[in-house]
Amino acid sequence: MQATGKVGLFGAAGAAGQCIAAALSAAGRGYRVVGRSRESLQRAFGHDPLAEIVTWNPDDPASVRAAAAGLQTVIYLVGVPYDQFAQHPPLMEKTLAGVTAAGVERFILIGTVYPYGRAQGNPVREDHPREPHTFKGRMRLEQEKLVLAAHGRAGLSTLVLRLPDFYGPCIERSLLQGVFVGAATGKRAQLLGPVDMPHEFIYLPDIAPVVEILTRTPEAYGRWWHLAGVGTITQREVARKAYALAGREPKLMVAGKGMLRVLGLVNPLMRELVEMNYLMTEPLVLDDSALTKLIGPIVKTSYEEGIRRSFEAARASVSAGDATRRETVRGT
């Protein structure tokens, strides 16, 4: 593996960006965090002297170029609202134009399983057909096609790292976060059903050391890779384990596809979840043996430990919120 230059995290303020930044910092590597809001970046990374904070406008290639200036590697973590997935391909086009003009050498897209469509057999290797049957899958596929087509152009090397659904401490966009908050508060957890189907999750902090290694592994580029979790688990089992840590019985409110359709009449987000519900009813489990062969054994957090850490983080967050509210009441 080669030593590498400065890394930029584009769309850094989210949970994945913060995890990857922590791994870069632990390795003693300076890094740049890029996002629209300086305030949110300062809040997330202002404590780290190794972090350089830069704002950008991802719709403007000139702004992208300025944000990428002097970087060797860009890690792309830019999200869009769930009902605006059509933005993914044009945003990627502008980003690739900007980073290429800036002379960036390596580009990593953190991707999803959406481009595969339905699993044609599990576990799924990288040679599985990319045949998405959903709009979101097609948009993600167009996005990663742009990334892979840019490989070898103007000195740029690219790769896609494909992940399953993720979870972890205080990760609000995780399907499982409601379970940990529910267990910590004793309230009912809202879940997408069915909850008794095995599903693959990855503990999000586990991706960070892998991404750090890939930034300095030139032979990894020019293709996509899988990073899997530690097998499958049902959401009901996650809930059982999390509530048990609080000494409580699980309390669940489950929304299946039918309920999502009804809720979608008044809630746009619920409407957008309908087409992706197949991932809850038809498991897709990744095989990451190719990546392991490339970079060696990958350390992964067990569900038992990941659930414990996630619950404890939720409990601490709830306690901190309660303390803040008490202080506010005393001060009024």
UniProtKB/TrEMBL annotation:
InterPro entries membership: Epimerase_deHydtase (IPR001509), NAD(P)-bd_dom_sf (IPR036291)
Pfam family name, one: Epimerase
Domain NAD-dependent epimerase/dehydratase, first and last residues per copy: 10-218
Coiled-coil residue windows: none
UniProt pathway: Bacterial outer membrane biogenesis; LPS O-antigen biosynthesis
UniProt similarity note: Belongs to the NAD(P)-dependent epimerase/dehydratase family.
Name of the protein in question: Nucleoside-diphosphate-sugar epimerase
The organism's taxonomic lineage, starting at the top: Bacteria, Pseudomonadati, Pseudomonadota, Betaproteobacteria, Burkholderiales
